[in-house]
């Protein structure tokens, strides 16, 4: 069984070595018994450490190991392409915009959109006839940004105002679903789970997300500075290092959304978008004054300029969920002077 693609497409990709064969990734088990996972790890799959068992969720296995991206069986079949860079920024912007347009031509039946008000989720929402959902604590940056962006786009917004009760209830669910209890992963997973949960309650079974844009298009400070956090000495090289982190991140995100009963849809991780992003270089990706430069220019064809240019906080901070998990941990006796106190708190909830 394969998630994300047909076995025939995967077979053709293996034979050709084409790492971007079309679609939004795949993972699973082929009829010949080989596990497979696309080059960006856009879908997770797991195997038993000491047996032939496999599953799409680590919770279904006794001793699960994440199957590596780019592999078919024991062999690495696909690696990230390194196409020639665009020469002109105008051409790059046009190609990215065209890829975005194509990626958003998806069936929106049963679909909801995780909407934070930033450029990534706004571009996703722009072409989809689907309700928009945002989650955050009262007074959070994400609630305010989502309201402003939804208003600018003339769209209705469904707001989920988070409470401590929501956090205490949801933390064990996402920690078990993802197999991760550390503060960072739980803080990122919780907003996705809570949005997906509400969308499912409202009758939707798929959740469109803006994942991938920051990694593909130069959305991180470390790619601009090429500092100690990356080995590369160029913006393009640093961006490729960040892209290599996607399999681990997407595993968490997909499992969190599925834990709520929804299936994630990530248009910005479409192969056509990935191919266009890999052709960007230097200031087309990011400069000291502007991250995701070409992506933002392309986004102006989809959303109002004020949204395309808006900077946004990471979801765990913009929603205030990370802050409130920390607060709950300290109330439960896990003080900041303790080693990794939030993780200890999460583990206590699992007990």
Automatic annotation (TrEMBL):
Which keywords are on file for this protein?
Answer: ATP-binding, Nucleotide-binding
PANTHER family in the cross-refs: ASPARAGINE SYNTHETASE (PTHR11772), ASPARAGINE SYNTHETASE [GLUTAMINE-HYDROLYZING] (PTHR11772:SF2)
Record keywords: Nucleotide-binding included? yes
Q: Where is the Asparagine synthetase domain?
A: 98-229, 243-320
Q: Does ATP-binding show up as a keyword for this record?
A: yes
Origin species:
Halalkalicoccus tibetensis
Q: Which GO terms describe its molecular function?
A: ATP binding
Give the protein name, as stated in the record: Asparagine synthase C-terminal domain-containing protein
Please give the coiled-coil regions recorded for this protein. none
């Amino acid at each position: 069984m394969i998630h994300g693609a047909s076995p025939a497409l995967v077979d053709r990709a293996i034979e050709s070595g084409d790492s971007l064969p079309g679609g939004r990734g795949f993972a699973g088990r082929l009829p010949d018994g080989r596990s497979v996972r696309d080059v960006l790890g856009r879908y997770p799959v797991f195997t038993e450490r000491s047996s032939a068992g496999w599953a799409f969720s680590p919770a279904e296995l006794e001793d699960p190991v994440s199957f590596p991206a780019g592999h078919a069986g024991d062999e690495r079949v696909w690696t990230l392409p390194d196409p020639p860079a665009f020469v002109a920024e105008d051409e790059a912007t046009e190609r990215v915009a065209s890829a975005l347009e194509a990626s958003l031509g998806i069936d929106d039946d049963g679909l909801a959109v995780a909407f934070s008000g930033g450029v990534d989720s706004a571009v996703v929402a722009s072409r989809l006839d689907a309700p928009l959902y945002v989650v955050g604590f009262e007074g959070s940056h994400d609630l305010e940004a989502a309201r402003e962006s939804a208003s600018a786009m003339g769209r209705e917004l469904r707001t989920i105002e988070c409470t401590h009760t929501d956090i205490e209830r949801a933390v064990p669910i996402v920690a078990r679903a993802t197999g991760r209890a550390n503060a960072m992963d739980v803080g990122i997973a919780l907003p996705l789970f809570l949005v997906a949960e509400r969308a499912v309650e409202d009758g939707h079974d798929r959740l469109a997300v803006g994942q991938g844009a920051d990694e593909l298009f130069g959305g991180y400070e470390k790619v601009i500075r090429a500092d100690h956090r990356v080995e590369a000495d160029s913006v393009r090289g640093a961006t490729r290092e960040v892209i290599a982190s996607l399999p681990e991140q997407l595993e968490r995100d997909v499992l969190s959304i599925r834990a709520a009963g929804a299936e994630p849809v990530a248009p910005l991780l479409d192969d056509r978008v990935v191919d266009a992003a890999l052709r960007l270089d230097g200031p087309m990706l990011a400069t000291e004054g502007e991250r995701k430069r070409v992506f933002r220019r392309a986004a102006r064809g989809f959303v109002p300029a004020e949204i395309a240019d808006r900077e946004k906080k990471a979801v765990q901070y913009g929603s205030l969920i990370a802050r409130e998990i920390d607060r709950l941990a300290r109330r439960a006796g896990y003080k900041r002077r303790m080693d990794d106190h939030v993780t200890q708190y999460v583990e206590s909830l699992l007990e």
